[in-house]
Structure formats: C-alpha cells, structure tokens
Please model this.
Amino acid sequence: MGTKEQQIHPVVDSTAVFKETIFAGKVLFCTGGGSGICKGMTESMMRHGANAAIVGRKLDRLTASAEELSKSTGKLCLPVQADVRSPEQLRAAVAKTIEKFGRIDFVICGAAGNFLAPISGLSENGFKTVIEIDTLGTYNTVKATLPHVRNSRGSYIMVSATLHYRGTPYQIHVSAAKAAVDAISNALAVEEGPHGVRSNVIAPGPIGGTEGMDRLSTKDKTATDWGLITPAGRLGDIRDIANATVFLFSDAANWITGQILAVDGGNEHLRTTQ
Ligand code: HXC
Model:
C-alpha cells in the first residue's frame, strides 16, 4: 500500500462526485447495517439525503450505530432488531419502517455470516446456518419489502462476494450461499423490471478494517498481502463500496439491472490470469 499507488487510485467520498440531495425524501432499508460495509453503505445513502432503517440481531449495536449515523449525516436512522432468518421478524421490521417513514425506496440485502472452515470441519449445521443467513435471509428480505419497493419503483442491492467465481478453500458454505444470492438478484431483476424495480449485486473484494477481512485473513494471505497484490494498488476501503452503492441506487444507473459489479480493485482479473 505505497503512497504512490494511493495517489493513483485514491479513496474518495461520494459527495465529491454526486449531489448531496439525490436521495432526499427517499428511504433505505438495510439488513446488516449496524456495522462494517453495510453501515458504510447506509451512511453514504444518508449523506445524499435518504433516511434509513438498519436491521440486525444486536439492538444495542444498532442503536449506537443509528445515533452515530444520524449525527454524522443529519438524517433519520431507525434501528430495528430482526434476524433475517425469520420471515416474521423481517415483516415486523418492514412494518416498523413503514410506520416511521411511510415508504421504502431502496433495499440493501447485506446481513451475512462467515467463518473459515474446511469441509472436514464444517458440520451440516454450520453449512445450513450460513445458507440460512445469506441466502434465505436475502429471499426473506426481498419477500418482506417487495410490495413497498414496487410502490416506489425502487431498487435492490445484494451484497455478495467474488469467492464463488472459482473454488475458494474453506469457503464452501459461503460460496454456495453467495452464488444463490447472485441468482436471486438476476431473477428478481428480470421478473420485476416491468414493474419498475431494479436489482443489482455488489461483490466486494478485500476491504480493510472489516469483520469479514479479519475473519478471512489467514497466515498465508493477510490484509497487507491483499493490498500489495491488488492491481489498483491498495486494499479496498468501505467508501469504495459505498460509492458504488450511491451510483447503483442513483438515477444515473436507471438502465442498469441484473448486474453483478465486482468492486475489488481488479483482484478478480488478476486471479483469472494467474
Ligand atoms: C466451523 C463453525 C464455526 C467455525 C460456527 N460454526 N463457527 N464451524 N468453524 N469457525 C458452526 C457451529 O459449530 C454450528 O454448528 C453452526 O456453525 C452454527 O453456529 P452458531 O454459533 O450456533 O450460529 P449463530 O449464532 O447463528 O452464528 C452464525 C455464524 C456467526 C455465521 C456462525 O459466525 C455469526 O453470527 N456471524 C455474523 C457475523 C459475521 O459472520 N460477519 C462476517 C461477515 S463477512 P454445530 O454443528 O456445532 O451446531 C462475510 C463476507 C463474505 O460474510 C465474503 C467474504 C469475501
């Protein structure tokens, strides 16, 4: 992560590129928004005028994050406790969001679970748990929000990964789960396009300072290694994902749906040529 490379591909704030009012009057519903990448995605949407509901399992963390996000952006943020594995809890979370804000325009399906485990150390329940959080959680989120997103002719972003494009060791469970998430978005885009709804996937590469990076770094490949080998010359930053989010939800992306956007500093291309 040399300074030279940082100058070539600097991290920028979306407000340096997009107007701060583009999402004024709009509402974001974000699962997994209490921390990490999804919290950063939510913050950027709020910086451009949206109010938001952030959904997760840990109410204390959500409440602290919601206060922080409101303070930093001047917009409203509603913390809502729900486990995405529960359709009932998600329906209740959507009802609370509608009660508070009256509409849902944008949905981020971001709640995810992960750990490194070889197949020999991955129990049936371990596999099932990740599928239930990532894949069923995405399905449950779409089911619960779709009537409102249709009403507003809104848009979805699913947070996926790039590790299932080819075999990634110790990631059988997440690879299967994220491949299905990509498939959900593709089919949703085609079915719902005629109703004015768009759906796209963001597949983040290695992003520094996140729980995912901490969990997935190994002795063989640390966060620093990822930064050094990345064609864009540095590790990803949460703002890189946030910027892509603002673009994909904005009207500038009105004819973009059913796409899977790797936001990864070129890592995927590097890996395909190795
Ligand atoms: C092997 C494991 C394990 C591990 C859990 N399990 N951790 N097996 N190695 N390190 C197994 C357990 O033994 C159990 O199976 C089953 O998984 C369920 O575990 P629980 O702890 O009971 O489940 P739960 O409390 O629901 O927790 C879900 C979780 C947990 C996914 C296991 O890690 C979690 O809550 N994570 C949320 C936060 C998170 O993962 N963030 C990272 C997101 S990053 P048995 O058989 O014993 O009952 C991300 C990026 C993906 O997703 C893309 C990367 C590029």
Notes: Residues 24-272 form a domain with the Rossmann fold fold (CATH 3.40.50.720). The chain has a mean pLDDT of 94. The two ends are 21 Å apart (CA to CA).
